């Protein structure tokens, strides 16, 4: 492949000439979508056992290769030869709504944009975010014991949306703009489920694109105001940040980063907390162990310095993400021909990465289907069996920029909830688990919440 062709990789179509690789593309148009919705793990497991670690695979018209294995994932995420494009990997999925977002940038452009964004996630900013989120979560949780037919998922989702509106955008949850923002954001999230990317009236995709325009207009109107102000929300940080040459982010860059951060920060934490409390509500012993740790801090409100003193809670969150990663499939596309597990992979080939299957491989984890946070602690430290056996926050240069924020928010929620309340699920509770679009208990986690004492 010539250097000119490599430089033009963004305009090249996906390569689907993969007959030399074992596997199959599934049904026409849908690919393996139906089984992915109903049996994610079973689908990946059958492909892996039948065809090996590299196999032909397709989802909703996207034809490429399914990859399974920590060594391959390490090669791809470290990307020493700059051969794996995140932008083109997600071009026909997340890229339909979030083109230009940090996750969907490659190489020097990605590094440059990431440096500019990091100010919003430094220690001083994070301390301020923690002070803001705690009372929102506390007030939301206080209403839960009084709600008949309580379901955890929609309630925590709304609480986290309120947190995101304040911390990311600087809007109080009572502000009518927050309601407009939240609705538009939810419509965009639903739009990602649209299989046919055409704006046909009445379809999820059309509603998502309409909402995307609303979000873009919303942020565009506020940029000059926030740039001139002194707000401590993420949006204001982005508006004021400058390059070494004294240049601001462009309006379009700010809008792209903000819309994706709202999506990534809110949905992933909703999924993680929903699965964590599914386990805690079913297991009084684990619930009490995390409560003891939270109460042992001796504070009504968590401080930033307390975060490092919650090792068991940290382990429980990571164990939840091991069993139920918030992102079920990650994607890349090759820039030039390469080799993976002895297979010749042509340029412009779409690659599907399966974190949940990796997270349950017996070569890396003991009793991998069990919820066991102690595997993350001394003396076991099973996550160190391979530097890429856990992808709960991605890896390499594209590792989640909001990882520490997400862990802080989850710990804050655990502290606020467990020091004041206890929860339980119906006897024998074993829900069907939904994988797409948001991994969660399919029944939204019915739960009894009671104030302690």
Structure write-up:
The protein is of the alpha+beta class and 453 residues long. Helix content is 47%, strand content 9%. The protein contains 17 helices and 11 strands. Strands 1-2-7-4-3 form a 5-stranded mixed β-sheet, with helices on both faces. Strands 5-6 form a two-stranded antiparallel ribbon. A two-stranded antiparallel sheet has the order 8-11. α13 (251-282) packs across α14. The radius of gyration is 22 Å and the shape is globular. The model has no long low-confidence stretch (mean pLDDT 93).
Task: Summarize the structure in short.
The protein is of the alpha+beta class. Helix 8 packs antiparallel against helix 9, helix 8 packs parallel to helix 17 and helix 9 packs antiparallel against helix 13.
Shape: globular
Q: Termini separation (Å)?
A: 70 Å
Oligomerization state: single chain
User: Helix amount, in percent?
Assistant: 40-55%
| Total beta strands | 11
Q: How many H/I helices? A: 17
Q: In percent terms, what proportion of residues is strand?
A: 5-15%
The average pLDDT score comes to: 93
Major β-sheet strand ordering? 1-2-7-4-3
Give the low-pLDDT segments.
none
Class by SSE composition: alpha+beta
* Element pattern in H and E: HHHEEHEHHHHHHHHHHHEEEEHHEEEE
The gyration radius over C-alpha positions equals: 22 Å
- Sheet with the most strands, sense and barrel status: 5 strands, mixed
State the main characteristics.
453 residues; alpha+beta; 5-stranded mixed sheet; 17 helices; 11 strands; globular
């Amino acid at each position: 492949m010539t250097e000119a062709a490599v430089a033009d990789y963004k305009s090249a179509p996906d390569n689907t000439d993969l007959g030399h690789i074992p596997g199959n593309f599934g049904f026409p148009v849908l690919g393996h979508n139906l089984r992915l919705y109903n049996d994610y793990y079973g689908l990946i497991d059958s492909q892996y056992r039948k065809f090996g670690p590299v196999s032909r695979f397709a989802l909703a018209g996207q034809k490429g290769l399914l990859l399974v294995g920590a060594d391959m994932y390490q090669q791809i995420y470290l990307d020493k030869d700059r051969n794996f494009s995140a932008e083109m990997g997600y071009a026909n999925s997340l890229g339909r709504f979030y083109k230009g977002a940090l996750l969907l940038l490659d190489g020097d452009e990605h590094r440059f944009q990431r440096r500019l964004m990091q100010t919003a996630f430094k220690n001083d900013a994070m301390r301020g975010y923690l002070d803001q989120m705690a009372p929102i979560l506390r007030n939301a949780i206080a209403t839960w014991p009084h709600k008949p037919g309580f379901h955890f998922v929609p309630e925590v989702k709304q609480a986290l949306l309120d947190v995101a509106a304040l911390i990311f955008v600087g809007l109080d949850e009572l502000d009518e703009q927050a309601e407009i923002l939240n609705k538009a954001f939810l419509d965009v999230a639903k739009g990602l489920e649209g299989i046919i990317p055409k704006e046909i009236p009445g379809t999820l995709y059309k509603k998502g694109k309409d909402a995307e325009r609303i979000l873009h207009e919303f942020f565009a109107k506020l940029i000059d105001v926030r740039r001139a102000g002194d707000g401590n929300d993420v949006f204001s940080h982005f508006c004021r940040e400058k390059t070494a040459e004294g240049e601001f982010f462009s309006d379009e860059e700010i809008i792209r980063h903000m819309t994706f951060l709202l999506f990534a920060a809110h949905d992933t934490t909703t999924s993680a907390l929903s699965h964590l409390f599914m386990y805690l509500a079913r297991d009084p012993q684990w619930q009490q162990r995390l409560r003891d740790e939270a109460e042992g801090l001796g504070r009504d409100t968590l401080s930033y310095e307390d975060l490092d003193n919650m090792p068991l809670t940290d382990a429980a969150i990571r164990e939840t993400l091991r069993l139920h990663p918030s992102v079920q499939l990650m994607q890349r596309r090759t820039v030039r021909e390469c080799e993976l597990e002895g297979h010749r992979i042509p340029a412009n080939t779409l690659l599907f990465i399966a974190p949940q299957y990796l997270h349950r491989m017996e070569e890396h984890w003991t009793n991998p289907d069990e919820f066991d946070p102690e595997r993350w602690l001394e003396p076991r430290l099973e996550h160190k069996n391979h530097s890429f056996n856990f992808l709960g926050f991605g890896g390499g240069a594209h590792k989640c920029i909001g990882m520490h924020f997400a862990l802080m928010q989850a710990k804050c929620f655990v502290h606020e909830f467990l020091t004041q309340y206890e929860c339980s699920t119906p006897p024998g509770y074993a829900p069907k688990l939904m994988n797409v679009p948001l991994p969660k208990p399919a029944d939204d986690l019915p739960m009894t919440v009671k104030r302690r004492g």
